[in-house]
TrEMBL record, chains A, B:
<keyword id="KW-0547">Nucleotide-binding</keyword>
<comment type="pathway">
    <text>Amino-acid biosynthesis; L-methionine biosynthesis via salvage pathway; S-methyl-5-thio-alpha-D-ribose 1-phosphate from S-methyl-5'-thioadenosine (hydrolase route): step 2/2.</text>
</comment>
<keyword id="KW-0028">Amino-acid biosynthesis</keyword>
<feature type="binding site">
    <location>
        <position position="345"/>
    </location>
    <ligand>
        <name>substrate</name>
    </ligand>
</feature>
<keyword id="KW-0418">Kinase</keyword>
<dbReference type="InterPro" id="IPR009212">
    <property type="entry name" value="Methylthioribose_kinase"/>
</dbReference>
<keyword id="KW-0808">Transferase</keyword>
<comment type="similarity">
    <text>Belongs to the methylthioribose kinase family.</text>
</comment>
<keyword id="KW-0067">ATP-binding</keyword>
<protein>
    <recommendedName>
        <fullName>Methylthioribose kinase</fullName>
        <ecNumber>2.7.1.100</ecNumber>
    </recommendedName>
</protein>
<dbReference type="GO" id="GO:0019509">
    <property type="term" value="P:L-methionine salvage from methylthioadenosine"/>
</dbReference>
<dbReference type="GO" id="GO:0046522">
    <property type="term" value="F:S-methyl-5-thioribose kinase activity"/>
</dbReference>
<feature type="binding site">
    <location>
        <position position="229"/>
    </location>
    <ligand>
        <name>substrate</name>
    </ligand>
</feature>
<dbReference type="InterPro" id="IPR002575">
    <property type="entry name" value="Aminoglycoside_PTrfase"/>
</dbReference>
<comment type="subunit">
    <text>Homodimer.</text>
</comment>
<dbReference type="InterPro" id="IPR011009">
    <property type="entry name" value="Kinase-like_dom_sf"/>
</dbReference>
<feature type="binding site">
    <location>
        <position position="40"/>
    </location>
    <ligand>
        <name>ATP</name>
    </ligand>
</feature>
């Protein structure tokens, strides 16, 4: 990787000109750098003659996001390899890749800026009636077909090896499963929330223990090739389709982590309406839509997963009475537990979400954060009693009624 | 590995002469090949002048033990690397290694033929009062210091990668967790046992399901660097010391698998006395000794493991109230469950144990096998209710009383 250098806008244009089959020879290319500049450069390159456009995502070398985490540019390789597998399994539910350049640590890919980042859509109160169907397809296919249920055990273990991704996992281990549960320096705390953390949240010994059990599962359970960061900011959406992106956290981990990330981020949006100036009618309607979506995601996931299993699982696995039910119950419980951790970290940890941080009044923001923390806590503590997604929906409704009372 | 060839006895002698620091120049070397010849060549080379001796263990290339399992000679690398780690962690509880030769797929190691293979000692009714202390040291050190509790997460993940060992794991997946639970071709079935299997054992749906859950744990839970085949035939013993050998199955797996292997093999010996011509007094006394040993192994393991944790676990882990207790309860349950699978496979599967197969009368052997299967079944089915090793001992005693009644 001796020839790595961060590209300038001009160099980015020169670079794509040499990639076959993207732009025609008479293209008049224009380039903007649209990344946040911390971890990656993101070049948007557009042909003024044809309106065709592409994205170049280039990793910055040896970024430090926290003192103890150097991020090498190898992460682009994980992203590329995971996208390739996800693309084949889901028939194109990820951005099209035109070129992966390991030396320059970049991926040239489809420009999807005509779609919406789902988080923004949810914040605007948009509804996506096909989302449950779409994301459950993505989840069920990627989770089932990369697991030991389907793959030859040797091939699966080679993939585990290929996707050992310590740097990116460390970020999750610390930011999701460790730091939010004590007064860590990395945390980003709304001063109005601090009293609740100090007087209540950080004293919850049972919660801290259960989160640590889930952390161990994250660190040891090599179940499926997961996306690893599947929040609503990693999904482009419109009324027709979704595209899942930013797969650099991909590794072999517990399958429930991706499902939980989606559910947890819908819960964060659910909680955020507490702090917003909208009518009670709108709020109730939108929240019902979100809960209905969560219910449909799990139920459609389960239906699809069972059908893949019945068709394509190893014969010795299919022969085991009751194992499919046991597997799915465990997966539901893992998903909700992991989702609880993903919900809580966004209220306390380093990286927040716009759903909540968009609430400018810090007192109101703290109210919404506490509401989200209470649901997150219940997700972790009560996960082992769950037998269906409806059990979970009831828990959320009960906490909501207490909040509203 | 282009220069690989199986050595002749003469070549084995020439080979060790060139390894520095083993034999003196005027040694008069004699060589015997003492392996069973299926998987490995084992040369015992002795200096007639000094009585010094060594072992060369050389892997045969591309062995097929069952049609679908080719065993490449790379397994020697796993054995060597695991021995090296075990040696450092346990201060010499494995045979000393004089040389590892990757090209020839061999290890030159300490000759321990003055010690006894533990299985033979147990079959002869020997007692080893220090064994619980010794093996609990081996287990607690190797399990704790290779886990995420102690290692830097990045270093641990690199080790997981280094020890991805699909070929040897496949043997365990099939022979321990799959084939014994149906009428598989690989099984090796005492005709007197067959009616019990057909009429009862193979119809136990709950057992089959729970074994499959344990199989999934074996395939996905990368918790510690385990030996992977720690039965009493992999332990040299005398009244002073133990040496653990045959580590080619080593990989990152569930920590309970090694503990369970030891306990399961003590249970196999425990069951075997049912079929043997010994006095009731001897039998009861020896069985009490075995149960006492099992109890001490776990309790000493737990004590040592907790002390390593208190001294050397990551600070963020030490800070979690109740996590150590939860971790150890889970580990006990995993160990007993895994041990149950190890017990049952030796009665039905391809590879048996001399404890039981030494019973020449096939009817009596079947009685002992059924007794072992009943304990094995209880280990799997009742593992989740266990809170202490004493709970388990009571289960064994109850089954024994029913058997004797």
């Amino acid at each position: 990787m001796g020839n790595y250098k961060p590209l300038t806008k001009r160099e980015a244009i020169e670079y794509v000109k040499q990639v076959q089959g993207i732009f025609s020879d008479n293209a008049d290319l224009e380039c903007e750098e649209i990344g946040d500049g911390n971890l990656n450069l993101v070049f948007h390159i557009c042909d003024k003659n044809s309106d065709q456009s592409i994205i170049i995502k280039q990793a910055l070398d040896h970024v430090r996001i926290v003192e103890s985490w150097p991020l090498t540019k190898e992460r682009v390789r994980f992203e590329y390899k995971a996208m390739d597998i996800q693309d084949k399994l889901t028939n194109g539910m990820v951005p099209k890749v035109y070129k992966f350049d390991e030396e320059l640590a970049l991926i040239v890919m489809e420009d999807l800026s005509d779609m919406t980042v789902m988080r923004k859509g949810l914040i605007a109160g948009e509804k996506y009636p096909h989302f449950a169907d779409q994301i459950s397809t993505f989840l069920s296919k990627t989770i089932f077909y990369t697991s030991d249920l389907y793959l030859d055990p040797k091939e699966k273990k080679e993939k585990v090896k290929e996707f050992i991704n310590p740097e990116l996992c460390k970020i999750t281990e610390d930011l999701v499963f460790t730091d939010p549960y004590y007064d860590a320096e990395t945390n980003n705390i709304n001063p109005e929330l601090r009293p609740y953390l100090e007087n209540e949240f950080w004293k919850k010994a049972e919660l801290h223990k259960e989160v640590t059990i889930l952390k161990e599962k994250f660190m040891t359970k090599a179940q499926s090739l997961i996306h690893g960061d599947l929040h609503t900011g990693s999904i482009f959406i419109n009324q027709e389709a979704i595209k899942v992106f930013d797969a650099e956290f991909a590794f072999y981990g517990p399958s429930g982590f991706d499902i939980g990330a989606v559910i947890g981020n819908l819960i964060l949006n659910y909680a955020s309406w507490t702090g917003k100036k909208v009518s009670r009618e709108f709020k109730n309607d939108y929240r019902n839509y979100l809960l209905e979506t969560i219910k449909n995601i799990w139920n459609e996931f389960e239906m699809k997963f069972r059908s893949f299993w019945d068709k394509h699982a190893h014969e010795v696995i299919k022969a085991v009475d009751g194992y499919q039910d046991a597997y799915l119950t465990q997966l539901l419980q893992d998903s909700i537990g992991m989702g609880g951790c993903k919900t809580m970290r966004r209220c306390i940890g380093l990286a927040h979400v716009e759903d909540l941080d968009g609430i400018e009044d810090l007192k109101k923001r703290a109210e919404a954060q506490i509401f989200a923390l209470k649901i997150g806590e219940a997700m972790v503590i009560r996960r082992k009693k769950l037998n269906s997604i409806e059990d979970f929906i009831k828990i959320v409704q009960k906490i909501t009624n207490q909040e509203d009372a």
